[in-house]
């Protein structure tokens, strides 16, 4: 067997793992869908949209797009990132103040917390700055939480936006926003996009891109292997990463020159790829 130093990295001449599950803007693959999704995010920020919504399946690349957006945000914009915010009235505002680095009195009332946020927004506006709040995993917010978020946009003046909201989440978020009971929130959404799964050709290009970015040639996966990987993952980027990581490991242990149809079939047969189980359940619901 080949040397275990670096597992399959040395074997394929790679300088890093090409298919880690952690969001990494350095590996960003700009599929047509991701380009459009990112353009909508940029449009929402640049056009001072009160609320921008980005939705997509688990592992579709939403967080990676947000991280890329943060890395390119103008210096004149103050950003607060809130992940998995939950809670009832008042608690959400505490998440917001914490994300903006503002102190919170232990016994502060709702009115005091709201006033602290309002004073901060006005002060930032006076300095020529805008504030953008990004809520990641926003599908976990309650209807009450979404309504409280909408109320934040009331702070804006008639002509200028003091605060902009970006809601990022799974498809359930889109359903929540479009609910007739959330009509007032929907009316504030000026930009929105839903990230679909990648198609077969995008999966092939995605795999090639990540292999080349990691120091490979991009030809380590055969055409048929890519086709089967698309079938197994349904084009979900995170699942493609999981499967390809196992495929490279299996190719290394088999001393195969490439990840071919036989390697992919072995990964499937051994049942080490759990992502396919969730897809099967989804398709049978």
TrEMBL record:
Source domain of life: Bacteria
Name of a matching Pfam family: AAA_22
Gene3D superfamilies, per the entry: P-loop containing nucleotide triphosphate hydrolases
Residue intervals of the AAA+ ATPase domain: 48-199
Family matches, as SUPFAM superfamilies: P-loop containing nucleoside triphosphate hydrolases
InterPro entries in the cross-refs: AAA+_ATPase (IPR003593), AAA_22 (IPR049945), ExeA_AAA_ATPase_DNA-bind (IPR052026), P-loop_NTPase (IPR027417)
Full protein name: AAA family ATPase
UniProt lineage: Bacteria, Pseudomonadati, Pseudomonadota, Alphaproteobacteria, Rhodobacterales
């Amino acid at each position: 067997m080949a040397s275990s130093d670096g597992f399959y990295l040395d074997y394929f001449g790679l300088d890093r793992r090409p298919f880690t599950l952690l969001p990494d803007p350095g590996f960003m693959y700009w599929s047509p869908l991701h380009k459009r999704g990112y353009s909508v995010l940029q449009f929402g920020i640049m056009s001072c949209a009160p609320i921008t919504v980005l939705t997509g399946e688990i592992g579709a690349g939403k967080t990676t797009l947000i991280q890329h957006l943060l890395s390119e945000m103008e210096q004149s914009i103050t950003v607060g990132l809130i992940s998995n915010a939950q809670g009832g009235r008042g608690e959400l505002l505490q998440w917001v103040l914490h994300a903006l680095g503002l102190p919170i009195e232990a016994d502060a009332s709702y009115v005091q917390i709201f006033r602290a946020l309002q004073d901060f927004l006005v002060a930032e506006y006076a300095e020529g700055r805008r504030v953008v709040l990004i809520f990641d995993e926003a599908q976990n917010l309650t209807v009450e939480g979404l309504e409280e978020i909408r109320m934040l946009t009331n702070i804006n003046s008639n002509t200028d936006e003091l605060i902009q909201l970006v809601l990022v989440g799974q498809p359930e978020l889109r359903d929540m926003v479009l609910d007739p009971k959330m009509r007032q929130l929907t009316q504030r959404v000026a930009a929105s996009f839903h990230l679909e799964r990648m198609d077969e050709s995008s999966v092939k290009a995605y795999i090639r891109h990540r292999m080349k970015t990691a120091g490979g040639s991009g030809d380590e996966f055969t055409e048929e292997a890519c086709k089967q990987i698309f079938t197994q993952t349904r084009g979900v980027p995170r699942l493609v990463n999981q499967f390809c990581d196992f495929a490279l490991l299996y190719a290394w242990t088999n001393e195969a020159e490439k990840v071919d149809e036989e390697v992919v079939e072995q990964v499937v047969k051994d049942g080490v790829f759990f992502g396919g189980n969730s897809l099967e359940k989804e398709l049978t619901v």
